[in-house]
Amino acid sequence: MTMGSNVSLTALSENVGSAIVSLGWSSPTGEGDADVSVLLLDGNGKVRSDADFYFYNNPVAADGSVQLLGKEPTGEGSEDRISFDLTAVPAEVERIVVAASRYEGARFGELDDLKVTLADASGESLLRFVIEDAGQVSAIIFGELYRRGEEWKFRAVGQGYESGLAGLATDFGVDIEDDEAEHEAESRAEHEAESGAEHEAESRAEHEAEHGAEAGAESGAEAALDRAVSTPTPPQATLEAVPAPRPPAEEETAPKQRATRPRTAKKRVTPPRAPVKSLAENESWRQARLFPVSALKNDRDRETRATSVLLSVMAQVPRFGRRITAPFGAPSGRMETFTEVSLPHGDTPRRPDGVIRVERAGKLWTALVETKTNGNPLRSDQVQAYMDIAARRGYEAVITLSNDVALEGSPLVDVKIDRRRKHQVALWHLSWAEVAHQAQMLIRHEGVGNAARTWLLQDLLHYLQHDNSGCHGFQNMGAAWVPVRNGINDETLCQGDPRALDVVESWERLIRQVCLRLGGELGQKVLPAQRSRRGTDPGARRARLADQLCLEGRLQAELRVEGAPGLLTISADLRTAKLRTSVEIPAPEQGYPLTWAKRLIRRLAEAPADLHVETLVEGEAGGPRGTLERLRPEPGDLLPKDGSTRIAGFRLSLFKGMGSGRGSAESGFIRSVDDAVHRFHTSVMVHLDVPSSGRTAVRERAAG
Length: 704
Known about the structure:
The chain is an alpha+beta fold. The chain has 15 helices and 23 strands. 30% of the residues lie in helices and 23% in strands. Strand 14 (363-371), helix 6 (380-393) and strand 15 (397-402) form a beta-alpha-beta unit. The chain is globular. The model is unreliable at 179-259 and 692-704 (pLDDT under 50).
């Protein structure tokens, strides 16, 4: 689209009851950013009240018509998404303005690739508008949705504001309380206090005592004059980023206080990089926590506490709650959570561990929650009862939550679903490791809006990672682990042994959890890479891997790390009790082999000396190889003796002894895999060049 042009959404798609608008930009320095905002306008081009102004301190509409979904990293920079339910927009709203603003003196002219895109409910992109030259403005209206009869249209605007977010919002009737002036005043006051303001205050007090009556009369006259000439303004609606709990009946009759105005203070709050110095006298002092774990004595206590802690934080930190429930089909809207709810079921009422309810456009989405901690398994009869209750009551889902990790095509519990019922209930599973991953992503890399929400998430993460919480994720390779290892060493394990399949499934669960942990540390997507064709039956694939384990005695997986030069491969050789982490990187398309080798060794200056480097030669099983310690003085040793042989790339590998235990204790196998992947990525992969977009790793090229 071009500036000023417009288009009907129904002309582009039949599925425009809801839409996703995305604002994108990139920064040459990698540090520039902006914040999105939305204004709902009536026929006069003004907001009906301050509650129609949605921004970082007010991200969700109670009716579900607007929700700021937050930022997502893209290949070019960053993208901020907004969800609109156009069927829920009040009838008196005629226009929806979509804008973005910068802060602390930054201008949009410093950013590149400014654009807005719109997608329908199915995710199909419908339109795109690029702003070519933003100039020295600190706020921009990217576009607007507006009604024409019964349909919605989109207009590409591109109008800039030098006065920033406060100026833009004020133009549309929002009563803004800009914190920048307040901050400057507070800074001046602090400076005065540091430079002897106490003495000035005493002098002022003496002066006012002498002239108090005269000053009081003048103040009274000024106040009367102000009242005579000022126009009374109606009270504003309170903006609430998180829906407030329903007040008790006796509070409803209390006199209403004047609502606060929207505050445009910058909200990006992330934990400090360096830990704040503690005031504790010694290390035995423990900081007070909102969610204590010391009093937990049994599994029932752990389950009850963990459920309540998680659900309460989900309700009070909307972005976190949305991250948890969106994969299960929950809409964006006002969320309330409950624990220990009693529901009728035959002669004996059932009490699920929790209930999640999301309200959107007057409709409720409800899920029952069943929680397990400390490695306790889910019970099929219990989950079946909740599925039946949910079906009878018209609820949408049952969510199970435990340390186990669900696998594709391999349900954790067997339940019977009556297909004759008109209302079907979805059964979903969530691992505690995934909960910790989402909290870690928001705390360390993305932010959640303000200091209070950041603190809540930090305390939740501390609780989940505490040894006594029981919420540690996948921690046990299962009963088949030791017999399979012994069978491989004794060469008595036969193909078709069901215990080998159990080990393969446990390995896959472990790899999924390793991806979550590494992704949370990096703030990037880390996913298992599957070599099988799309549509292959997961059960058949695992059976084939189990037979391979019996023959070769090895477990292997590949991790796709966003932005990495190749797949991170982890291999566990059960015969030698060795773990191997490796990556294959392609040879450059230009230059000379000796230059490639020298550059690679220079890039690995901080890598471990025992790193193995191998040259991959086309058409041959392997090429020259050696440890980094030996190759540093002579990078040319990586080149084949036959100068005509074509080099395809290089393989870098680290070896580590693997733990013997099946659990995640210090000597356990699970801990050793976690440590090996973390060490390889932080000491090797971060130092490598990322190939250009048109090139892939050696193994990926060969597989194609």
